[in-house]
Amino acid sequence: MNTTRPPTFFDRVVAATPQGELLSQCLQCGTCGGSCPSAADMDHTPRELFAMTMAGLEDEVLASNTPWYCVSCYACTVRCPQQIPITDLMYTFKQMAISSRRFEHRATADWSESFIGFVEQRGRSFELGLATRYHLFHHPTQVVKMGTLGWNMLRHNRLTFRPRSIRNIEQLRAILEKAKAIAEKEAVG
Ligand code: SF4
Ligand code: SF4
């Protein structure tokens, strides 16, 4: 008799994440959420998402906006007492949500994709372009209000009109291309 059970949602998340097995060591201490600059916008803190993953709540986890508001700052990862790869887990959730088409917050996905697009092209975010694109597509009625805020930030040199690239952007692009090639190879294998 074959007693092998199919992998659970937790098993698949662990297998898809470098050092993902550490997730089973989560203490539910909440340090990750307390360190997260995007926590106020997330519908679940990272700690909650991990508890839900352990409980097998696949649909709820993959419908969450939490990974899409993650800006990959690694603040949670460096502070986690269990060295859990929290940022990488957020990428795993995003990949699983896309491939299973269970993510419903298109606006948040667009925000994330725009942010990544600017970083890939310039090596840094371009806040004015990011906010303008997001609000024009998803909250056009907010554009005037946001425009006032943006103008005040421009006056105080907190925003720039034009996107600027980091030095040695070609090196960053080469690294990103290499990383994508490795990820694609691993996904196939
Ligand atoms: S900081 Fe680490 S151990 Fe604490 S809740 Fe977050 S993932 Fe779990
Ligand atoms: S890496 Fe993501 S989840 Fe972690 S603190 Fe930064 S924004 Fe929050």
Quick description:
The protein has 189 residues and is an all-alpha fold. The chain contains eleven helices and no strands. The chain folds into two domains: 96 residues, no CATH class; 82 residues, no CATH class.
Please give a structural write-up.
The protein has two domains: about 10-105, no CATH class; about 105-185, no CATH class. It is about 60% helix and about 0% strand. It is built from eleven helices and no strands. It has helices spanning about 10-15, 30-35, 45-55, 60-65, 65-70, 75-80, 85-100, 105-120, 125-140, 145-155, 170-189. With about 190 residues, the protein is mostly helical. The model has no long low-confidence stretch (mean pLDDT about 80). The longest helix is centred in the last third of the chain and has 20 residues, at about 170-189. Bound molecules: iron/sulfur cluster (2 copies).
So what's the overall shape?
globular
Terminal Cα span: 29 Å
Could you state the order of secondary-structure elements as H and E? HHHHHHHHHHH
Kindly name the structural category: mainly alpha
Write the layout of secondary structure elements.
Layout: H1 9-15, H2 31-35, H3 46-54, H4 58-63, H5 66-69, H6 75-79, H7 86-100, H8 106-122, H9 127-138, H10 143-155, H11 169-188
Residues 26-32, 46-47, 50, 80-82, 84, 86 line the site of one iron/sulfur cluster.
Defining traits:
binds iron/sulfur cluster; mainly alpha; 189 residues; 0% strand; 2 domains
